[in-house]
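Quick one:
INPUT:
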């Protein structure tokens, strides 16, 4: 997986549009030339990229706003990382398993919780509940990023 590359891409997007938390993911979708289409379906789907029509379809029955933001960022990751062009190129050469889903998750996490902005808040000693509200993410997404960025050792208990 191209973790450092993905983190660099999200950092560049955040800097280009001068975003601060919470990162306005729907605004970024629009700035990158895509539209968001709302649907209501009982199917087990939160969001889906339709790259040919420059659209991210979002299930509006998903009522969790944090999950919605992550799902949109995840699908945007597929688009930005060009997973839709040659998906077979995104396979682990040793296992043959695709890594487009982990890459899209990395993109979403890195976009919604950028390392430099999250590190700044942790170093200031901001409580995790306040950080979660500031970035508008789930506790799980926050904790995953804290571990990936190796910030858990800086947390005040």
């Amino acid at each position: 997986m191209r973790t450092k590359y993905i983190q660099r891409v999200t950092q560049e997007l955040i800097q280009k549009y001068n975003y601060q938390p919470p990162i306005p993911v729907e605004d970024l979708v629009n700035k990158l030339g895509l539209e968001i289409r709302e649907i209501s379906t009982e199917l087990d789907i939160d969001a889906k990229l339709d790259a040919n029509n420059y659209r991210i379809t979002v299930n509006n029955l998903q009522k969790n706003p944090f999950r919605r933001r992550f799902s949109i960022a995840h699908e945007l990751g597929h688009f930005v990382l060009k997973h839709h062009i040659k998906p077979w190129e995104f396979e682990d050469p040793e296992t043959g398993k695709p890594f487009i889903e982990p890459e899209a998750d990395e993109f979403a996490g890195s976009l919604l919780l950028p390392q430099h902005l999250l590190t700044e808040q942790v170093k200031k000693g901001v409580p995790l509940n306040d950080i979660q509200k500031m970035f508008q993410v789930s506790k799980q997404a926050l904790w995953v990023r804290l571990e990936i960025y190796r910030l858990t050792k800086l947390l005040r208990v």
